[in-house]
Amino acid sequence: MSKPAKAATLKPRLPRGLIDRGPAEIAATERMLQTIRESFELYGFEAVETPFIEYTEALGKFLPDLDRPNEGVFSFQDDDEAWLSLRYDLTAPLARYVAEHFDAVPKPYRSYRAGYVFRNEKPGPGRFRQFMQFDADIVGAPSVAADAEICMMAADTLERVGIARGDYVVKVNNRKVLDGVMEAIGLGGDDQAGRRLTVLRAIDKLDRLGVDGVRLLLGPGRRDESGDFTRGAGLSDEAIDRIIRYVSFQAAPTEGGDRLAFWEKFFGGWVEVVGGSETGRQGIAELHAILRLCEAAGYGHERVRADPSVVRGLEYYTGPVYEAELTFPVVGEDGQTVRFGSVAGGGRYDGLVGRFRAEPVPATGFSIGVSRLFSALQIVKSPIVAGAAAPGPVVVLVLDREEIAAYQALVARLRDAGIRSELYLGAAGLKAQMKYADRRGAPAVVIQGSDERARGEVQIKDLIEGARAAEAIASNAEWKAARPAQFSVPEGELVPRMREVLERHFAG
């Protein structure tokens, strides 16, 4: 007689571009997020939350690719055949929220949001399909003073989470300047929007690909290490040279020098690149104003500076754009020393809320890449993410399964007193239960056999003290004689005596 066929089992697989997180990382991330919240609230921002799903039309033309609804985003149709999408970022949903509640929210409206966003893109190293962002935005403030305040808050937030001054810089540019450069090379007008976006994306890769890589993307195109080919913008050599000259401007004012003269000379070079473009000249003036405001508040060139290579990839930016870049060196997997790069970015998007309303609504804001910032804090060993993991629960062991109700009563007594605890729910014996408590990171266990129950007692075993004592005990016989860190108490004293154990190890 043949054996019955074994039922097929599913292979546990995580989809590409997604990650699982354990309790230690979650706890450390929450500490980081709380510090960011406190920084944003210090500047008067308040929390708001939007759902993961929006109507695709609410994301609209600001999606990364425009040919079909699910290009770049995860989209589906509901029962009414309306297209819905998982949010691509937190800014477009905010624009919808503000427009929908326009009369109820104060203007200017300062808000922050934290949550997951989703990208239907090719995953790779450091590129995920689901990741968390933390945004702060000011809606209804047309002055570049709002942009300056966002830059200052970005600098303050990085320092509060543990990035030392000198290990970061907030780089600022202006899309109007970029538009001026585009006009100067013949890419102005609505009919050139696609090529302009290709150019902006090429410039945005300057830090990663260098001048030669960007030159290829501005011209015929570039083939990467995997063999994938990216079509270029097809610009002339003269146009490419103008853009490369523009993004290569780098300078810093000297201490004690004439700073006004420096800025006039620095931005004078930009004026030459934008030529006669009034849009470009307006952008340069706005950029100059932002830097003056930041410097007046104590945020000098070492913290906030102009940088023409800052582009930001999305097309909804209309004015100042900025990136918070970490400048300390990191050794990569190939052994090469590189900069960590950008952990936050944003800019002014005056047209986004206005899509839903008749009148224009100015807005500006920035977004922190939570995972990237978390990785950076691990590298610099910030106390926020390098702090000790929270202790596990006290575990009440089960020696007599017929008395499960009695053990449950012990657990309830601990929980009623606010002591994190759990009842062992497996089927193993005492030795395996002790191993389970170790794996849970339990600071202590509660043991009650029939003899202890008859006497109205329990035993508390301090696992932390026991591990320390075990290092000093040479033999098994000595261990049994000492019974380190294990003692009996009346059931009525379980809570106060357990508190003593926990406070000994985790006071403060």
From TrEMBL:
<keyword id="KW-0067">ATP-binding</keyword>
<dbReference type="Pfam" id="PF13393">
    <property type="entry name" value="tRNA-synt_His"/>
</dbReference>
<dbReference type="GO" id="GO:0005737">
    <property type="term" value="C:cytoplasm"/>
</dbReference>
<protein>
    <recommendedName>
        <fullName>Histidine--tRNA ligase</fullName>
        <ecNumber>6.1.1.21</ecNumber>
    </recommendedName>
</protein>
<dbReference type="InterPro" id="IPR041715">
    <property type="entry name" value="HisRS-like_core"/>
</dbReference>
<comment type="similarity">
    <text>Belongs to the class-II aminoacyl-tRNA synthetase family.</text>
</comment>
<keyword id="KW-0963">Cytoplasm</keyword>
<keyword id="KW-0030">Aminoacyl-tRNA synthetase</keyword>
<dbReference type="GO" id="GO:0006427">
    <property type="term" value="P:histidyl-tRNA aminoacylation"/>
</dbReference>
<dbReference type="InterPro" id="IPR004516">
    <property type="entry name" value="HisRS/HisZ"/>
</dbReference>
<feature type="binding site">
    <location>
        <begin position="316"/>
        <end position="317"/>
    </location>
    <ligand>
        <name>L-histidine</name>
    </ligand>
</feature>
<feature type="binding site">
    <location>
        <position position="312"/>
    </location>
    <ligand>
        <name>L-histidine</name>
    </ligand>
</feature>
<dbReference type="InterPro" id="IPR045864">
    <property type="entry name" value="aa-tRNA-synth_II/BPL/LPL"/>
</dbReference>
<dbReference type="InterPro" id="IPR033656">
    <property type="entry name" value="HisRS_anticodon"/>
</dbReference>
<dbReference type="InterPro" id="IPR006195">
    <property type="entry name" value="aa-tRNA-synth_II"/>
</dbReference>
<feature type="domain" description="Aminoacyl-transfer RNA synthetases class-II family profile">
    <location>
        <begin position="30"/>
        <end position="391"/>
    </location>
</feature>
<feature type="binding site">
    <location>
        <position position="133"/>
    </location>
    <ligand>
        <name>L-histidine</name>
    </ligand>
</feature>
<comment type="subunit">
    <text>Homodimer.</text>
</comment>
<dbReference type="Pfam" id="PF03129">
    <property type="entry name" value="HGTP_anticodon"/>
</dbReference>
<dbReference type="GO" id="GO:0004821">
    <property type="term" value="F:histidine-tRNA ligase activity"/>
</dbReference>
<dbReference type="InterPro" id="IPR036621">
    <property type="entry name" value="Anticodon-bd_dom_sf"/>
</dbReference>
<feature type="binding site">
    <location>
        <position position="119"/>
    </location>
    <ligand>
        <name>L-histidine</name>
    </ligand>
</feature>
<keyword id="KW-0436">Ligase</keyword>
<keyword id="KW-0547">Nucleotide-binding</keyword>
<keyword id="KW-0648">Protein biosynthesis</keyword>
<dbReference type="InterPro" id="IPR004154">
    <property type="entry name" value="Anticodon-bd"/>
</dbReference>
<feature type="binding site">
    <location>
        <begin position="89"/>
        <end position="91"/>
    </location>
    <ligand>
        <name>L-histidine</name>
    </ligand>
</feature>
<feature type="binding site">
    <location>
        <position position="137"/>
    </location>
    <ligand>
        <name>L-histidine</name>
    </ligand>
</feature>
<dbReference type="GO" id="GO:0005524">
    <property type="term" value="F:ATP binding"/>
</dbReference>
<dbReference type="InterPro" id="IPR015807">
    <property type="entry name" value="His-tRNA-ligase"/>
</dbReference>
